[in-house]
Amino acid sequence: MNPYIKQLVTLVEIDKKIDSYEPKIAQISKALDTKLAEQNALEQKIKQYEEELADTEVKREKNEQHLAELNEKLKTFGKKSAAIKSEKELKALQLEEEIAKEQVAFANEEIERLDKITEQKKEQIEETKEKIQKMQEELEELKETTSKEVEKIEKERLEVFEEKQKLLSLMSQNIIVFYEKIRRWAKNTTVVPVRKQACYGCYMRINDHTYSSVIKGEEITTCPHCGRILYLESQFEEKDEENESRESASL
Ligand SMILES: [Zn+2]
């Protein structure tokens, strides 16, 4: 069989391998990416709690200020009552005092309520910080294992790249250009087997003339329907078996 066909089949296998590394790396990094996203979400939560805490602080201050004003006001009622002349004025003053006292009570309640919120927010911040701390250890471990695995794949990828360079250096430039042209659209199905007289790229039956040319394997044949490069697997299987028996013999 034409050695160029064998080279093309090997080349498409190498290209397939090279394309498989990116998704593999993405898969490996997924667990780490998820953990990093979780940590980021917790950090965002802390920010949110801190904002709520500051907001509560402002509200508390306002209530404190209001309370101080009310207390000042209550102090003046004694003086005012001494100056009162009529029943009507007395009633109005008493009503005013009552309202002020209610407002004091309400401001105190509000301060108490806000203090509870402050405490709660502080606890939430602490809890979240602890969670992040615990996660940090896991993250460090995960970072290490991920980088090791990625490194391993990168090494493998480099080896396959070198393998490809070696193969390309042995191939004819015209054939490489021909292959690359088809690969632009056919990607990893640039070179496909023929099974049951059908192209396994487009799955259409090929005519007898093309089929016999593929069987002969003397020249590079393309599918008349889709243009992919065709080959017959049985021609490789014999070789593969030879290789396997040789390998097992050397073991
Ligand atoms: Zn085809």
Quick description:
The chain is mainly alpha-helical. It folds into 2 domains: 3-170, Helix Hairpins (Orthogonal Bundle), CATH 1.10.287; 173-250, no CATH class. 81% of the residues lie in helices and 5% in strands.
Summarize model confidence as the mean pLDDT: 92
What are the low-pLDDT stretches, counting only 5+ consecutive residues below 50? 239-251
Order of helices and strands: HHHEEHEEH
Q: Describe the biggest sheet?
A: 4 strands, mixed
What percent of residues adopt helix (DSSP H or I)?
Answer: over 70%
Shape label: rod-shaped
CATH architectural designation of the largest domain: Orthogonal Bundle
Distance between the termini: 29 Å
Beta-strand proportion: under 5%
CATH topology of the largest domain: Helix Hairpins
Radius of gyration, whole Å: 41 Å
Order of strands in the sheet with most strands: 2-1-4-3
CATH class of the largest domain: Mainly Alpha
- Number of DSSP-assigned strands: 4
| Bound molecule kinds, no repeats | zinc ion
The count of domains is: 2
Helix vs. strand class: mainly alpha
Q: What is the helix tally?
A: 5
